[in-house]
Design a protein that fits this description.
Structural class of chain B: alpha/beta
Radius of gyration of chain A: 22 Å
Number of strands of chain A: 2
Strand order of the largest sheet of chain A: 1-2
CATH architecture of chain B: 3-Layer(aba) Sandwich
Shape of chain A: flat
CATH superfamily of chain B: P-loop containing nucleotide triphosphate hydrolases
Distance between the termini of chain A: 52 Å
Order of helices and strands of chain A: HHHHHEEHHHHHH
Oligomer: heterodimer
Largest interface: A-B, 32 and 42 residues
CATH class of chain B: Alpha Beta
Strand content of chain A: under 5%
Strand order of the largest sheet of chain B: 6-7-8-3-9-10
Distance between the termini of chain B: 30 Å
Helix content of chain B: 25-40%
Number of strands of chain B: 10
Order of helices and strands of chain B: EEEHEEHEHHHEHEEEHHHH
Radius of gyration of chain B: 20 Å
Chain lengths: 270, 282
Protein backbone atom coordinates (compact mmCIF):
# COMPACT_ATOMS: atom_id res chain seq x y z
CA UNK A 1 0.00 0.00 0.00
CA UNK A 2 1.30 3.43 -0.90
CA UNK A 3 0.10 6.57 0.81
CA UNK A 4 1.35 9.07 -1.78
CA UNK A 5 1.19 7.34 -5.16
CA UNK A 6 -1.16 9.90 -6.71
CA UNK A 7 0.86 13.03 -6.12
CA UNK A 8 2.15 14.44 -9.38
CA UNK A 9 2.73 18.12 -8.63
CA UNK A 10 6.37 18.92 -9.11
CA UNK A 11 7.18 15.89 -11.21
CA UNK A 12 8.48 16.29 -14.74
CA UNK A 13 6.83 14.06 -17.35
CA UNK A 14 9.12 13.61 -20.37
CA UNK A 15 7.63 14.04 -23.86
CA UNK A 16 8.66 15.37 -27.27
CA UNK A 17 5.82 17.92 -27.38
CA UNK A 18 5.96 21.56 -28.50
CA UNK A 19 5.24 22.76 -24.96
CA UNK A 20 8.14 20.69 -23.62
CA UNK A 21 10.49 22.16 -26.23
CA UNK A 22 9.74 25.80 -25.36
CA UNK A 23 12.28 27.93 -23.52
CA UNK A 24 11.60 27.79 -19.76
CA UNK A 25 11.58 31.61 -19.60
CA UNK A 26 8.75 31.62 -22.14
CA UNK A 27 6.83 29.10 -20.03
CA UNK A 28 7.42 30.96 -16.76
CA UNK A 29 6.22 34.28 -18.21
CA UNK A 30 3.28 32.58 -19.96
CA UNK A 31 2.16 30.90 -16.75
CA UNK A 32 2.40 34.20 -14.86
CA UNK A 33 0.28 35.87 -17.54
CA UNK A 34 -2.27 33.03 -17.41
CA UNK A 35 -2.45 33.16 -13.60
CA UNK A 36 -2.98 36.92 -13.67
CA UNK A 37 -5.73 36.44 -16.25
CA UNK A 38 -7.49 33.85 -14.09
CA UNK A 39 -7.81 36.34 -11.25
CA UNK A 40 -9.29 39.02 -13.49
CA UNK A 41 -12.14 37.08 -15.16
CA UNK A 42 -15.61 36.93 -13.61
CA UNK A 43 -18.06 35.64 -16.23
CA UNK A 44 -19.00 31.90 -16.19
CA UNK A 45 -18.74 31.65 -20.00
CA UNK A 46 -15.18 32.97 -19.84
CA UNK A 47 -14.39 30.47 -17.08
CA UNK A 48 -15.55 27.76 -19.46
CA UNK A 49 -13.17 29.16 -22.08
CA UNK A 50 -10.32 28.88 -19.55
CA UNK A 51 -11.27 25.21 -19.24
CA UNK A 52 -11.03 24.85 -23.03
CA UNK A 53 -7.63 26.57 -22.96
CA UNK A 54 -6.50 24.12 -20.27
CA UNK A 55 -7.57 21.23 -22.49
CA UNK A 56 -5.76 22.72 -25.50
CA UNK A 57 -2.49 23.16 -23.56
CA UNK A 58 -2.78 19.60 -22.18
CA UNK A 59 -3.20 18.28 -25.73
CA UNK A 60 -0.31 20.40 -27.04
CA UNK A 61 1.87 19.11 -24.18
CA UNK A 62 0.81 15.52 -25.02
CA UNK A 63 -0.02 14.88 -21.38
CA UNK A 64 -2.83 12.62 -20.17
CA UNK A 65 -5.65 14.90 -18.94
CA UNK A 66 -6.14 12.69 -15.88
CA UNK A 67 -2.53 13.26 -14.88
CA UNK A 68 -2.93 17.04 -15.12
CA UNK A 69 -6.12 16.86 -13.05
CA UNK A 70 -4.33 14.81 -10.41
CA UNK A 71 -2.01 17.77 -9.83
CA UNK A 72 -4.92 19.52 -8.14
CA UNK A 73 -5.49 16.70 -5.67
CA UNK A 74 -3.18 18.02 -2.93
CA UNK A 75 -4.96 21.41 -2.92
CA UNK A 76 -8.53 20.10 -3.01
CA UNK A 77 -8.89 20.60 0.75
CA UNK A 78 -7.73 24.20 0.38
CA UNK A 79 -10.22 24.73 -2.47
CA UNK A 80 -13.08 23.28 -0.38
CA UNK A 81 -12.04 25.33 2.64
CA UNK A 82 -11.93 28.57 0.63
CA UNK A 83 -15.28 27.79 -0.99
CA UNK A 84 -16.88 27.00 2.40
CA UNK A 85 -15.66 30.30 3.86
CA UNK A 86 -17.29 32.15 0.96
CA UNK A 87 -20.51 30.12 1.18
CA UNK A 88 -21.04 30.76 4.88
CA UNK A 89 -19.57 34.21 5.39
CA UNK A 90 -20.59 36.25 2.36
CA UNK A 91 -23.35 38.78 2.94
CA UNK A 92 -26.17 39.01 0.38
CA UNK A 93 -29.62 37.68 -0.56
CA UNK A 94 -30.34 34.68 1.66
CA UNK A 95 -31.18 31.40 -0.09
CA UNK A 96 -31.24 29.18 2.98
CA UNK A 97 -31.16 29.89 6.71
CA UNK A 98 -30.88 27.18 9.39
CA UNK A 99 -30.31 28.73 12.80
CA UNK A 100 -27.31 31.03 12.59
CA UNK A 101 -26.10 29.39 9.36
CA UNK A 102 -27.05 31.44 6.34
CA UNK A 103 -26.24 30.71 2.71
CA UNK A 104 -26.54 33.57 0.26
CA UNK A 105 -26.72 33.65 -3.52
CA UNK A 106 -23.65 35.89 -3.65
CA UNK A 107 -21.84 33.49 -1.31
CA UNK A 108 -22.46 30.53 -3.63
CA UNK A 109 -21.32 32.54 -6.67
CA UNK A 110 -18.17 33.73 -4.87
CA UNK A 111 -17.45 30.19 -3.63
CA UNK A 112 -17.71 28.84 -7.18
CA UNK A 113 -15.46 31.62 -8.55
CA UNK A 114 -12.80 31.26 -5.87
CA UNK A 115 -12.85 27.46 -6.04
CA UNK A 116 -12.49 27.50 -9.83
CA UNK A 117 -9.80 30.18 -9.69
CA UNK A 118 -7.73 28.18 -7.22
CA UNK A 119 -8.19 25.01 -9.27
CA UNK A 120 -7.16 26.72 -12.51
CA UNK A 121 -4.26 28.36 -10.70
CA UNK A 122 -2.83 25.01 -9.61
CA UNK A 123 -3.60 23.28 -12.90
CA UNK A 124 -1.98 25.98 -15.06
CA UNK A 125 0.99 26.25 -12.68
CA UNK A 126 1.47 22.49 -12.79
CA UNK A 127 2.13 22.70 -16.56
CA UNK A 128 5.36 24.44 -15.72
CA UNK A 129 6.70 21.53 -13.67
CA UNK A 130 5.07 18.80 -15.76
CA UNK A 131 6.65 20.01 -19.01
CA UNK A 132 9.91 21.57 -17.83
CA UNK A 133 12.85 19.77 -16.28
CA UNK A 134 13.62 21.28 -12.89
CA UNK A 135 17.15 22.09 -14.02
CA UNK A 136 15.75 24.03 -17.02
CA UNK A 137 13.21 25.72 -14.79
CA UNK A 138 15.98 26.75 -12.44
CA UNK A 139 18.06 28.02 -15.37
CA UNK A 140 15.06 29.98 -16.62
CA UNK A 141 14.45 31.57 -13.23
CA UNK A 142 18.14 32.29 -12.82
CA UNK A 143 18.23 34.07 -16.16
CA UNK A 144 15.03 36.00 -15.45
CA UNK A 145 16.39 37.13 -12.08
CA UNK A 146 19.91 37.79 -13.37
CA UNK A 147 19.37 41.59 -13.69
CA UNK A 148 18.88 41.71 -9.90
CA UNK A 149 22.18 39.92 -9.11
CA UNK A 150 24.00 43.28 -9.14
CA UNK A 151 21.77 44.32 -6.22
CA UNK A 152 22.85 41.24 -4.26
CA UNK A 153 19.91 39.00 -5.21
CA UNK A 154 21.03 35.33 -4.94
CA UNK A 155 19.55 34.20 -8.29
CA UNK A 156 21.71 31.09 -8.76
CA UNK A 157 21.38 29.92 -5.17
CA UNK A 158 17.61 30.33 -5.29
CA UNK A 159 17.38 28.42 -8.56
CA UNK A 160 19.56 25.57 -7.26
CA UNK A 161 17.52 25.36 -4.06
CA UNK A 162 14.37 25.06 -6.12
CA UNK A 163 15.88 22.35 -8.34
CA UNK A 164 16.92 20.29 -5.34
CA UNK A 165 13.57 20.77 -3.62
CA UNK A 166 11.77 19.48 -6.73
CA UNK A 167 14.26 16.63 -7.17
CA UNK A 168 13.63 15.46 -3.61
CA UNK A 169 9.81 15.57 -3.67
CA UNK A 170 9.42 11.93 -4.86
CA UNK A 171 12.27 10.75 -2.59
CA UNK A 172 10.80 12.34 0.52
CA UNK A 173 7.30 11.11 -0.31
CA UNK A 174 8.74 7.60 -0.57
CA UNK A 175 10.55 8.12 2.70
CA UNK A 176 7.38 9.35 4.44
CA UNK A 177 5.51 6.39 3.01
CA UNK A 178 8.15 3.99 4.35
CA UNK A 179 8.11 5.55 7.84
CA UNK A 180 4.30 5.50 7.95
CA UNK A 181 4.21 1.83 6.98
CA UNK A 182 6.90 1.05 9.56
CA UNK A 183 4.86 2.84 12.25
CA UNK A 184 1.69 1.03 11.12
CA UNK A 185 3.54 -2.28 11.48
CA UNK A 186 4.35 -1.24 15.05
CA UNK A 187 0.71 -0.60 15.86
CA UNK A 188 0.35 3.10 15.03
CA UNK A 189 -2.96 4.33 13.64
CA UNK A 190 -3.36 7.41 11.45
CA UNK A 191 -7.07 7.22 10.72
CA UNK A 192 -8.65 6.61 14.11
CA UNK A 193 -9.67 8.99 16.86
CA UNK A 194 -10.29 12.73 16.86
CA UNK A 195 -8.29 15.42 15.09
CA UNK A 196 -5.87 15.90 18.01
CA UNK A 197 -5.22 12.16 18.27
CA UNK A 198 -4.59 11.92 14.55
CA UNK A 199 -2.20 14.88 14.63
CA UNK A 200 -0.36 13.29 17.54
CA UNK A 201 -0.10 10.05 15.58
CA UNK A 202 1.92 11.93 12.93
CA UNK A 203 4.59 13.01 15.40
CA UNK A 204 6.46 9.66 15.19
CA UNK A 205 6.45 10.13 11.41
CA UNK A 206 7.64 13.73 11.41
CA UNK A 207 10.56 13.30 13.80
CA UNK A 208 12.39 10.56 11.81
CA UNK A 209 11.47 12.35 8.59
CA UNK A 210 13.17 15.56 9.77
CA UNK A 211 16.25 13.62 10.86
CA UNK A 212 16.41 11.95 7.43
CA UNK A 213 15.92 15.25 5.61
CA UNK A 214 18.84 16.89 7.45
CA UNK A 215 21.04 13.84 6.91
CA UNK A 216 20.20 13.77 3.21
CA UNK A 217 20.82 17.52 2.89
CA UNK A 218 24.27 17.12 4.40
CA UNK A 219 25.15 14.11 2.23
CA UNK A 220 23.93 15.88 -0.89
CA UNK A 221 25.99 18.99 -0.10
CA UNK A 222 29.11 16.82 0.24
CA UNK A 223 28.31 14.94 -2.99
CA UNK A 224 27.77 18.24 -4.84
CA UNK A 225 31.09 19.60 -3.57
CA UNK A 226 32.80 16.38 -4.66
CA UNK A 227 31.38 16.99 -8.15
CA UNK A 228 33.13 20.36 -8.36
CA UNK A 229 30.07 22.44 -7.46
CA UNK A 230 31.08 25.89 -6.25
CA UNK A 231 28.02 28.00 -7.01
CA UNK A 232 27.12 29.57 -10.31
CA UNK A 233 30.60 30.96 -11.08
CA UNK A 234 32.17 29.36 -14.15
CA UNK A 235 29.31 26.90 -14.58
CA UNK A 236 28.28 25.95 -18.12
CA UNK A 237 25.16 24.09 -19.29
CA UNK A 238 24.75 21.01 -21.45
CA UNK A 239 21.73 22.64 -23.07
CA UNK A 240 22.21 26.41 -22.79
CA UNK A 241 18.95 28.35 -22.92
CA UNK A 242 18.22 29.68 -26.37
CA UNK A 243 15.21 31.89 -27.08
CA UNK A 244 13.79 30.95 -30.48
CA UNK A 245 11.07 32.27 -32.78
CA UNK A 246 8.64 29.65 -31.52
CA UNK A 247 9.09 31.03 -27.97
CA UNK A 248 8.20 34.53 -29.13
CA UNK A 249 5.22 33.10 -31.04
CA UNK A 250 4.02 31.05 -28.06
CA UNK A 251 4.33 33.95 -25.64
CA UNK A 252 2.59 36.24 -28.13
CA UNK A 253 -0.25 33.72 -28.52
CA UNK A 254 -0.72 33.38 -24.75
CA UNK A 255 -0.66 37.16 -24.26
CA UNK A 256 -3.19 37.70 -27.07
CA UNK A 257 -5.49 34.95 -25.77
CA UNK A 258 -5.42 36.25 -22.21
CA UNK A 259 -6.03 39.84 -23.33
CA UNK A 260 -8.94 38.67 -25.53
CA UNK A 261 -10.41 36.62 -22.68
CA UNK A 262 -10.12 39.52 -20.25
CA UNK A 263 -11.68 41.96 -22.76
CA UNK A 264 -14.43 39.44 -23.50
CA UNK A 265 -15.05 39.02 -19.79
CA UNK A 266 -15.35 42.79 -19.25
CA UNK A 267 -17.86 43.06 -22.10
CA UNK A 268 -19.95 40.15 -20.87
CA UNK A 269 -19.82 40.99 -17.20
CA UNK A 270 -20.35 44.73 -17.23
CA UNK B 1 54.86 -2.39 -11.87
CA UNK B 2 52.95 0.85 -11.25
CA UNK B 3 55.23 3.83 -10.96
CA UNK B 4 53.44 7.14 -11.20
CA UNK B 5 51.78 8.18 -7.96
CA UNK B 6 48.24 9.56 -8.24
CA UNK B 7 47.57 10.17 -4.54
CA UNK B 8 49.96 10.03 -1.64
CA UNK B 9 49.05 10.16 2.03
CA UNK B 10 51.90 11.19 4.30
CA UNK B 11 51.35 10.51 8.01
CA UNK B 12 47.75 11.67 7.81
CA UNK B 13 45.96 12.12 11.12
CA UNK B 14 42.42 13.42 11.15
CA UNK B 15 40.32 14.47 14.12
CA UNK B 16 36.66 15.36 13.52
CA UNK B 17 35.80 18.74 15.05
CA UNK B 18 33.63 17.97 18.08
CA UNK B 19 34.24 14.25 17.53
CA UNK B 20 34.55 11.47 20.12
CA UNK B 21 37.15 11.74 22.91
CA UNK B 22 38.88 9.11 25.02
CA UNK B 23 38.58 8.81 28.83
CA UNK B 24 41.13 11.57 29.45
CA UNK B 25 39.14 13.96 27.23
CA UNK B 26 41.70 13.90 24.39
CA UNK B 27 39.97 13.94 20.98
CA UNK B 28 40.13 10.50 19.35
CA UNK B 29 41.48 10.68 15.79
CA UNK B 30 39.45 9.00 13.03
CA UNK B 31 42.75 8.45 11.18
CA UNK B 32 46.15 7.99 12.82
CA UNK B 33 49.45 8.43 10.92
CA UNK B 34 48.09 6.91 7.73
CA UNK B 35 50.62 6.64 4.91
CA UNK B 36 50.23 4.92 1.57
CA UNK B 37 50.13 5.71 -2.13
CA UNK B 38 47.75 5.08 -5.00
CA UNK B 39 49.52 4.40 -8.29
CA UNK B 40 48.36 5.24 -11.79
CA UNK B 41 46.19 2.57 -13.45
CA UNK B 42 45.84 0.34 -10.40
CA UNK B 43 42.66 -0.88 -8.74
CA UNK B 44 43.23 -0.47 -5.04
CA UNK B 45 40.92 -1.97 -2.43
CA UNK B 46 40.63 -0.05 0.81
CA UNK B 47 39.36 -2.52 3.39
CA UNK B 48 38.15 -2.13 6.91
CA UNK B 49 35.28 -2.83 9.26
CA UNK B 50 32.65 -0.24 10.19
CA UNK B 51 34.24 2.72 11.97
CA UNK B 52 37.74 1.88 10.77
CA UNK B 53 38.08 5.25 9.03
CA UNK B 54 37.62 4.14 5.40
CA UNK B 55 35.11 6.84 4.44
CA UNK B 56 37.09 9.53 6.25
CA UNK B 57 40.14 8.47 4.29
CA UNK B 58 38.22 8.47 0.99
CA UNK B 59 37.11 12.06 1.61
CA UNK B 60 40.77 13.07 1.96
CA UNK B 61 41.52 11.84 -1.58
CA UNK B 62 38.93 14.28 -2.98
CA UNK B 63 39.86 17.20 -0.67
CA UNK B 64 36.48 16.99 1.04
CA UNK B 65 38.44 16.63 4.27
CA UNK B 66 41.86 18.10 4.97
CA UNK B 67 44.32 16.33 7.31
CA UNK B 68 44.63 17.67 10.85
CA UNK B 69 48.28 16.55 10.70
CA UNK B 70 50.36 15.22 7.82
CA UNK B 71 49.59 15.83 4.18
CA UNK B 72 47.55 14.37 1.33
CA UNK B 73 49.08 15.02 -2.08
CA UNK B 74 47.02 14.45 -5.23
CA UNK B 75 48.86 14.70 -8.56
CA UNK B 76 51.55 16.69 -6.79
CA UNK B 77 49.08 19.14 -5.18
CA UNK B 78 48.50 19.34 -1.46
CA UNK B 79 44.85 19.20 -0.45
CA UNK B 80 45.71 21.64 2.34
CA UNK B 81 45.99 24.52 -0.11
CA UNK B 82 42.53 25.81 -0.93
CA UNK B 83 43.56 27.00 -4.38
CA UNK B 84 44.13 23.34 -5.36
CA UNK B 85 40.69 22.09 -4.26
CA UNK B 86 38.83 22.59 -7.54
CA UNK B 87 41.65 21.08 -9.60
CA UNK B 88 41.96 18.08 -7.25
CA UNK B 89 38.22 17.42 -7.54
CA UNK B 90 38.58 17.59 -11.33
CA UNK B 91 41.22 14.85 -11.08
CA UNK B 92 39.68 12.55 -8.48
CA UNK B 93 35.95 11.80 -8.72
CA UNK B 94 33.99 10.25 -5.88
CA UNK B 95 31.02 7.93 -5.71
CA UNK B 96 29.31 7.55 -2.36
CA UNK B 97 27.50 4.69 -0.66
CA UNK B 98 23.92 5.89 -1.02
CA UNK B 99 23.14 6.83 -4.63
CA UNK B 100 19.91 8.54 -3.57
CA UNK B 101 21.86 11.22 -1.73
CA UNK B 102 24.16 12.16 -4.60
CA UNK B 103 21.72 12.49 -7.49
CA UNK B 104 21.11 16.17 -8.14
CA UNK B 105 19.28 16.07 -11.47
CA UNK B 106 15.73 14.90 -12.02
CA UNK B 107 16.54 13.34 -15.39
CA UNK B 108 19.34 10.81 -15.99
CA UNK B 109 21.32 12.85 -18.54
CA UNK B 110 20.85 16.04 -16.53
CA UNK B 111 22.38 14.44 -13.46
CA UNK B 112 25.25 12.95 -15.46
CA UNK B 113 26.01 16.42 -16.85
CA UNK B 114 26.13 18.07 -13.40
CA UNK B 115 29.87 17.48 -12.83
CA UNK B 116 31.10 18.59 -16.28
CA UNK B 117 28.81 21.64 -16.07
CA UNK B 118 30.49 22.60 -12.79
CA UNK B 119 33.87 22.08 -14.44
CA UNK B 120 32.90 24.68 -17.07
CA UNK B 121 33.16 22.28 -20.03
CA UNK B 122 31.67 23.56 -23.36
CA UNK B 123 28.11 22.26 -24.08
CA UNK B 124 28.99 20.04 -27.07
CA UNK B 125 31.71 18.30 -25.09
CA UNK B 126 29.40 17.81 -22.11
CA UNK B 127 26.89 16.12 -24.39
CA UNK B 128 29.58 13.81 -25.81
CA UNK B 129 30.88 12.97 -22.33
CA UNK B 130 27.37 12.24 -21.03
CA UNK B 131 26.71 9.92 -23.95
CA UNK B 132 29.97 8.02 -23.39
CA UNK B 133 29.46 7.77 -19.61
CA UNK B 134 25.90 6.49 -20.05
CA UNK B 135 27.04 3.94 -22.64
CA UNK B 136 29.81 2.64 -20.38
CA UNK B 137 27.41 2.25 -17.46
CA UNK B 138 24.65 0.73 -19.61
CA UNK B 139 22.19 3.55 -18.98
CA UNK B 140 22.07 5.06 -22.46
CA UNK B 141 18.54 3.68 -22.97
CA UNK B 142 17.36 5.55 -19.87
CA UNK B 143 18.96 8.85 -20.82
CA UNK B 144 15.70 10.83 -20.77
CA UNK B 145 14.10 8.98 -17.85
CA UNK B 146 13.38 10.67 -14.52
CA UNK B 147 15.93 9.57 -11.92
CA UNK B 148 13.26 8.50 -9.43
CA UNK B 149 12.16 5.73 -11.82
CA UNK B 150 15.56 3.96 -11.69
CA UNK B 151 16.23 0.86 -9.60
CA UNK B 152 18.83 0.92 -6.80
CA UNK B 153 21.48 -0.66 -9.03
CA UNK B 154 20.73 1.77 -11.86
CA UNK B 155 20.95 4.72 -9.47
CA UNK B 156 24.39 3.60 -8.33
CA UNK B 157 25.47 3.18 -11.97
CA UNK B 158 24.13 6.69 -12.59
CA UNK B 159 26.32 7.95 -9.76
CA UNK B 160 29.29 6.24 -11.45
CA UNK B 161 28.23 7.75 -14.81
CA UNK B 162 28.20 11.22 -13.20
CA UNK B 163 31.74 10.64 -11.96
CA UNK B 164 32.89 9.23 -15.32
CA UNK B 165 31.51 12.21 -17.22
CA UNK B 166 33.95 14.38 -15.28
CA UNK B 167 36.73 12.39 -17.06
CA UNK B 168 38.95 12.27 -14.02
CA UNK B 169 41.94 9.93 -14.18
CA UNK B 170 41.06 8.53 -10.75
CA UNK B 171 37.79 7.25 -9.34
CA UNK B 172 37.17 6.71 -5.61
CA UNK B 173 34.14 4.61 -4.66
CA UNK B 174 32.99 4.56 -1.05
CA UNK B 175 31.19 1.24 -0.51
CA UNK B 176 29.32 1.55 -3.81
CA UNK B 177 27.73 -1.88 -3.52
CA UNK B 178 26.50 -1.55 0.07
CA UNK B 179 22.90 -0.85 -0.92
CA UNK B 180 22.70 -3.09 -3.97
CA UNK B 181 21.23 -6.54 -4.52
CA UNK B 182 23.52 -9.27 -5.99
CA UNK B 183 22.55 -8.40 -9.59
CA UNK B 184 23.16 -4.69 -9.08
CA UNK B 185 26.46 -5.50 -7.38
CA UNK B 186 27.62 -7.74 -10.23
CA UNK B 187 26.62 -5.11 -12.81
CA UNK B 188 28.55 -2.41 -11.02
CA UNK B 189 31.63 -4.58 -10.51
CA UNK B 190 31.58 -5.43 -14.23
CA UNK B 191 31.48 -1.70 -15.07
CA UNK B 192 34.41 -1.09 -12.71
CA UNK B 193 36.34 -4.02 -14.22
CA UNK B 194 35.90 -2.53 -17.69
CA UNK B 195 37.02 0.89 -16.50
CA UNK B 196 40.09 -0.60 -14.87
CA UNK B 197 40.89 -2.50 -18.06
CA UNK B 198 40.64 0.82 -19.91
CA UNK B 199 43.35 2.27 -17.65
CA UNK B 200 41.36 4.17 -15.04
CA UNK B 201 42.82 4.33 -11.52
CA UNK B 202 40.21 3.03 -9.08
CA UNK B 203 40.09 3.11 -5.29
CA UNK B 204 37.30 0.86 -4.02
CA UNK B 205 36.31 1.07 -0.39
CA UNK B 206 34.59 -1.99 1.02
CA UNK B 207 34.39 -4.44 3.87
CA UNK B 208 33.35 -7.34 1.61
CA UNK B 209 36.37 -9.41 0.74
CA UNK B 210 34.61 -11.22 -2.09
CA UNK B 211 34.46 -7.91 -3.99
CA UNK B 212 38.19 -7.31 -4.10
CA UNK B 213 39.22 -10.36 -6.12
CA UNK B 214 39.71 -8.28 -9.24
CA UNK B 215 41.72 -5.57 -7.47
CA UNK B 216 45.49 -5.26 -7.81
CA UNK B 217 46.34 -4.31 -4.28
CA UNK B 218 44.72 -3.87 -0.87
CA UNK B 219 45.20 -1.57 2.08
CA UNK B 220 43.54 -2.64 5.34
CA UNK B 221 42.49 -0.03 7.88
CA UNK B 222 41.70 -0.87 11.47
CA UNK B 223 40.81 1.69 14.15
CA UNK B 224 42.06 4.52 11.94
CA UNK B 225 45.45 2.93 11.21
CA UNK B 226 46.86 1.08 8.22
CA UNK B 227 47.43 -2.46 9.49
CA UNK B 228 48.19 -4.22 6.22
CA UNK B 229 49.21 -3.34 2.65
CA UNK B 230 50.05 -5.65 -0.24
CA UNK B 231 48.74 -7.82 -3.09
CA UNK B 232 45.33 -9.50 -3.00
CA UNK B 233 46.78 -13.03 -3.00
CA UNK B 234 49.09 -12.13 -0.10
CA UNK B 235 46.11 -10.69 1.77
CA UNK B 236 44.19 -13.97 1.57
CA UNK B 237 47.22 -15.81 2.90
CA UNK B 238 47.39 -13.67 6.05
CA UNK B 239 46.12 -16.35 8.37
CA UNK B 240 43.77 -15.43 11.15
CA UNK B 241 44.10 -11.63 10.97
CA UNK B 242 40.70 -11.04 9.34
CA UNK B 243 38.73 -11.54 12.55
CA UNK B 244 41.09 -9.18 14.34
CA UNK B 245 40.39 -6.51 11.72
CA UNK B 246 36.65 -7.06 11.93
CA UNK B 247 36.44 -8.68 8.48
CA UNK B 248 34.94 -11.98 7.39
CA UNK B 249 36.93 -14.44 5.31
CA UNK B 250 34.85 -15.50 2.28
CA UNK B 251 34.43 -19.33 2.22
CA UNK B 252 36.07 -19.49 -1.20
CA UNK B 253 39.15 -17.68 0.11
CA UNK B 254 39.32 -19.94 3.17
CA UNK B 255 39.14 -23.00 0.91
CA UNK B 256 41.84 -21.55 -1.36
CA UNK B 257 44.06 -20.78 1.63
CA UNK B 258 43.68 -24.32 2.98
CA UNK B 259 44.58 -25.74 -0.43
CA UNK B 260 47.61 -23.42 -0.53
CA UNK B 261 48.80 -24.75 2.81
CA UNK B 262 48.55 -28.32 1.46
CA UNK B 263 50.91 -27.22 -1.32
CA UNK B 264 49.91 -30.17 -3.52
CA UNK B 265 48.40 -28.50 -6.57
CA UNK B 266 49.14 -25.39 -8.64
CA UNK B 267 46.62 -22.79 -7.53
CA UNK B 268 45.63 -19.53 -9.20
CA UNK B 269 47.15 -16.38 -7.67
CA UNK B 270 43.76 -15.23 -6.36
CA UNK B 271 40.85 -17.37 -5.06
CA UNK B 272 38.49 -17.17 -8.06
CA UNK B 273 35.93 -19.92 -8.82
CA UNK B 274 37.07 -20.54 -12.45
CA UNK B 275 40.73 -20.59 -11.33
CA UNK B 276 40.05 -23.09 -8.57
CA UNK B 277 37.92 -25.30 -10.84
CA UNK B 278 40.75 -25.36 -13.41
CA UNK B 279 43.35 -26.17 -10.78
CA UNK B 280 41.27 -28.95 -9.22
CA UNK B 281 40.40 -30.50 -12.60
CA UNK B 282 44.07 -30.65 -13.54
Amino acid sequence: MKFFNHLTFGQYVPSESLVHSLDPRCKIISVLVLLTGIFVVKHPAVFALWGVLLGCITAAARLPFRLVLRSAKPVLILVLFTASIHIFFTEGDPLLQVGFIRITRQGLVMAAYMGLRLLFLVLFASFLTLTTRPMELADGLERLFSPFVRFGFPAHELAMMMTIALRFIPTLLDETDRIMRAQLARGASFDRGGLWKRLKAFLPVLIPLFVIVFQRAEDLAVAMEARCYRGGAGRTRMYPLCWEKKDTAALGAVLTLVVLLVIGDRRLFF
Amino acid sequence: MHQKTVCELRDVTYVYPGGASDDSGTPRPALRNVSFSVYEGEWLALLGSNGSGKSTLAKHLNALLVPTQGDCVVHGMSTKEEKNTFLIRSLVAMVFQNPENQIVGTVVEEDTAFGPENQGIPPEEIEARVETALKVTGLIGKRKKPTYTLSGGEKQRLAVAGALAMETPCLVLDEPTAMLDPTGRDDLLTVLGNLHAAGKTIVSITHRLEEILRCDRAVVLHAGEVVWEGSISALFLTNGSFREWGLDTPPLAAFWRDLQSENRIDLPSIPSIPGLVDALCQ
